[in-house]
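Supplementary Text 2. Reproducibility record for the structural model of the 279-residue chain.

All settings were left at their defaults, and a single model was retained for analysis rather than an ensemble. We include the record here because the model underlies the residue-level annotations in Supplementary Table 4.
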Amino acid sequence: MSEARLQGRVAVVTGGASGIGAGTVRRLVQDGARVVLADIQGGAAELLAKDIGPQARAVRADVSSEADVAATVDLAVAEFGRVDVMFANAGVFGAYGPIHTADMAAVDATWAIDLRGVFLCMKHAARVMRPQGSGVIIATTSPAAVMGGVGNHAYSAAKAGIIGLMRSVAAELRPYGIRVNAVMPGAIVSAMTADLVLGNATALDKVSELMARDAAGHRPGLPEDLAAAVSYLASDDAAFVTGHTLIVDGGYTSIAAESPFSTGDYAGGGAFFEAGRRG
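Retained model, structure tokens:
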């Protein structure tokens, strides 16, 4: 990987102050991009941008607010001249509980952040990218989009909606030289995961230890794993990739379990045929 992979590119990362977003901001800057990181955690965003230096700018933004999303994109243009990459990453786990007792205010708030927010990011990125004739839009979905029982109802619906939205927008924007894709992370060590598992958003070391026990490959996913995927999709290495969901989950959604048919009694090889005949 060349450090100049994204040289001269300008990226916007929502949810950029922590977790996957923060890891991606650092990776994109490492790869040569200048980045505007937007987060409702304005103070944390400012601290990260200050730590990174002149290649980063921070803005407090609520992605459910169109005015905030528009202002974030406008800031990137004002500060750096253009927008080449939009990573619509901000999201919350949101409303939970049985379907028959659902608090619709909480459900609507979840959808406003997790799906409307992505829609707005795509809208305002396209506003700038279409006249450029180039750009990359990437959104964060989840295994909950394709597997039941992984997320709560509102979150699962929103993350499934992102995949449909991504494909639809990819079809519209392809003639303008704009690629639109999604990344699907598995369980990633982050403040949100620590809060969900332990009720303590700061317990990153502890949640990493717990997740490693049952994780595919005997380690949990890290923000850096997703950041690498986003950097790839944002780069010219992925110039022929659009309308695609890149799964980065250690095999969680595609491997049900470790294969039993190559170890133990099956380690010596052989074959099963009809009516119990073996070869």
